[in-house]
Amino acid sequence: MLASRRLRQVLRVDVVLINLLAWGFALVWLLPFIGLFMVSVRPYGEVIVKGWWNIVDATFTMDNYIKAWSYDPYSVSGGYINSLIVALPATVIPVAAASFAAYGFSRFSFPLKSYLFLVTILLMALPQQIVVVPLFLLLKNLGLINTFPGIILVHSAWGMAWIIFFMKNFFDILPREVEEAARVDGASDFRIFYKIVLPMSLPGILSASVLQFTWVWSSFFFELIFLIDPSKWVITQRIANMKGTYLVDWGLIAAGSVFAMAVPLAVYMLLQRYYIRGFVGWAAKG
């Protein structure tokens, strides 16, 4: 009895320590975002003099947001439109194509299957800088440099490898009895995938979509190389160019950064349930 009570006390202390550590890490992780938000809602001069952490007699204003939204020629509103034009198809296309490929890797046997999947895994480890020169030459020959279809094609191809890996692991944990029963009833492989597997895979598909959308939305390097015309710049490019020649207005840049974070954050909050379920499936098999 005494040993049992002591064990419960030790476990309780462990839980408290783990919670304290978790809250400590969360606070440290959130600190830069809190600082960014405070800089965005206060006048630049006040932040320089007092520091963003000092809120005594602080002045809060939305001027930085209003200025960033219509900042000429790198307005956030224009960046929103261009980023959506790129991010939406660059999410739908690779998720759809990679889901077909992942289902093939998960359910069917074909020559060189293991080697092809190994190549897919290796492609995930390549840094973007290695492929940028051949991609630039390829897009130039195709006449797709400085075009939205060009950058959508690049992001779609770049996202295929990890989405195939992600979705294959998700398909692997789905029960196969329903598919086998449908096959006995005469359903084709495509019908089984479309009518049975796809609805059951909704958490994984939405989870992959959220991740791909977030990475494309936050991307900067590919856009820096392949989008040259300022009118086609996405939001990440515009924020980088909001700095002035002689003075960097950090309040303006902070407001633009908050605008840029708002969309992926909203998508995550909207699809959080599927996102977590998809990751649980991936972690269980991966």
TrEMBL record:
InterPro entries: MetI-like, MetI-like_sf
Domain ABC transmembrane type-1: 80-271
Organism: Aeropyrum pernix (strain ATCC 700893 / DSM 11879 / JCM 9820 / NBRC 100138 / K1)
Family, similarity comment: Belongs to the binding-protein-dependent transport system permease family.
Keyword list, A-Z: Cell membrane, Membrane, Transmembrane, Transmembrane helix, Transport
Subcellular location: Cell membrane
Membrane topology per record: Multi-pass membrane protein
Keyword presence, rRNA processing: no
Name of protein: ABC transporter, permease protein
CDD domains per record: TM_PBP2
GO biological process, any: transmembrane transport
Record field: transmembrane: 20-41, 80-103, 115-139, 151-171, 192-217, 250-271
GO cellular component: plasma membrane
SUPFAM superfamilies attached to this UniProt entry: MetI-like (SSF161098)
